[in-house]
Amino acid sequence: MAEVLLNQAHGYGIIIGLSVLFCLIILAAVRVQKRYLSEDSEQSEMFMVANRSVGTGLTASAVFSSWMWINESVICAAYTYKWGVALPIWWASGLSFQIALMALLGIVAKLRVPYAHTSLEFIRMRYGKYAHGIFILLNLVNNIFGCGSMILAGAQLVTGMTGMHVVAACILIPAGVVIYTAVGGLKATFITDYIHTAIALILLIYFSLSVLTNEHIGGISGLYHKVKAADDYIDGNYQGSLLTMKSRHAVFFGLVLKFGNLALVLMDTAFWQKSFASEVESVVPAYDLVSVVILAVPWCTGTIIGLSGRAIEKTPIWFDYPNLLTEKQVNSGLVMPYVLRSLLGQGATTGLLVLVFMAITSTVSSSVIAVSSIISLDFYRSYINPKASDRKILKVSHWGVVGHGAFMAGFAIMLQYAGATNNWTTYFRPIIACPGIFPLMLTLLWSRQTKAAAILSPILGLISGVGVWLGLSYLWGGALNIQTTQIQLPGLYGAITSFFSPALYSVIISLIWPSQFDWREFLRIDLIEDSSSPSTSVPSPQDSKEDVNKISDPAFTGVNEKHEAKTGLVSPVSSISNPRSGSLDDVTHPFSDQTIRHIKKWRNYAACYFVLNLLVTVVLWPVPLYRDYIFTLSFFKGWVAVAILWHFAAMMAVVVYPIWDGRHVIDTVFRGVSKEWGSKK
Ligand SMILES: NC(N)=O
């Protein structure tokens, strides 16, 4: 590589400095939560599902943060450089409907498994330990490949930008996250996620607008004319243009991305956990809001930064002029760092390093907390020590966070030395991560899916998907190697087979040996109570909300009670503990009839919205534009202007709105702090 954009001191300084800063923020947040909000991360219910009391704004920001990987900004800009304006749209459409589907499944889970902690817990409840084992494996494979390839992509980016050794980057990036996640648990990561999202979105909008208005770009018109003047010919695009939606490679990439991303949401218990953690009336609005605003990130950043790379690469303003980017540099995501360094200087490139850190750490924190709850609940509490106290489970969770973080660093280093690129894992991952999706959804949605179907269909789906992928790679590539196994079409057909065939297998097997499940069985999953210590007894959802107001000072009461009186959404009963065995007639739902009616209403909204989202983002938006058409200047102007407005809407939704939504809690904290400080004086 010709020039290093920043030096190693920038790399080490930012990664270590920000890790320490976020550890301090988490320590402060844990103290504040415990002291003024009566939320104790030393209880499992709080550590894993934040007492199921997180509101719409904070849930939206946390889901957005976990879902906004460096892919959508830095890598999307690089792929837009490769294939033009079509790519960000296919990227955006490959990000949205999965979150809309999760909204639907999350609200169904609130109804059917109101006290679940992980998605695997209800697999075990319904199908027993063999199915549970298979789904633990599928979840871990999905999580390890998703998170590992993200750490590697981030580390390669940091190495490309600063010259830091890639192994040091693979270790340091997850190190700080592991420490603060182990200390704070899920609710604490909601808070760091919020800070990450706010900083990342502000930086992204600043980068886009500063690049667009830079004198060497010249606004939207300048960008359009310069891209045309660069006269790059893109193989597979209509007339080789960067300014057409008819791009074969972008479409195939977008389709593979859809399957890969579906697995990253549904087979990652973190997205389920965030829905378990949020209030009954918050799940659907929060997830659906995210599904709308997430479109902005690839659309705005990808289009402006990716095309700007093409616009200036052959001019003297280019940082590495007269060298053009190599394919390896593009695949490592270095388009955005080069564009920012060329047009905005070293300060902006340092800002990008901060953004990369923010985006990766929120992905990693969500991944480690998900795996730690699989280890502590799905493995330890299920098979090693069923009578484990709350404190013991928490301890195992903490070690799970640390162990998984260390493992992920090692896994990313292994991928680096095995020569696997982000490109290869993009095509490989959906094939191994998709087979469990349909059987998992049917566990919650179809009472007739049988135990044999749940166990066999993912295995058969995996075999079918891998068979199609390798068979077609051999047929069309002439051999089986790392090159032929990342050709687009075999990867796409393999992913389609892995995703859809388990649905077919499941239905066939279920109909051959039919049986029916009684949904009331799921109500036997209950809260983790600490019988060893009455003082740490876990509050019910109702208790937890009231606790926000009741603690320490009678003056604090009434904040959320007004809200509860308005919506009446919380069950009138306190923690119900249903018998683990015996007649199902003795089992009662923990929510009131009114709350259940409300959940059903949200479920219907979520189902309608999911269908609408799928129709708009996958069909009505991109498909009519797939034709012999090159964007005119006026169309391009409108296109980019809407993308920028959408980005501002995203900021309002996940940065400004959570503050408004959480104003009562913020007020409670401020009043607590000022009262305490006042009494000290
Ligand atoms: N958000 C993702 N998976 O790019």
From TrEMBL:
InterPro entries: DUR, Na/Glc_symporter_sf, Na/solute_symporter
A GO term from the CC aspect: plasma membrane
UniProt keyword terms in alphabetical order: Membrane, Transmembrane, Transmembrane helix
Cited Pfam families: SSF
Bilayer-spanning residue ranges: 12-32, 53-70, 90-109, 130-152, 164-183, 190-209, 250-272, 284-307, 352-375, 396-415, 427-446, 453-472, 492-513, 606-626, 638-660
One GO molecular-function entry: urea transmembrane transporter activity
Record's subcellular location: Membrane
Coiled coil: none
Keyword tRNA processing applies: no
Topology relative to the membrane: Multi-pass membrane protein
PANTHER family: DUR32P (PTHR46154:SF3), PTHR46154
Family: Belongs to the sodium:solute symporter (SSF) (TC 2.A.21) family.
Protein name: Urea active transporter
Origin species: Aureobasidium namibiae CBS 147.97
High-level lineage: Eukaryota, Fungi, Dikarya, Ascomycota, Pezizomycotina
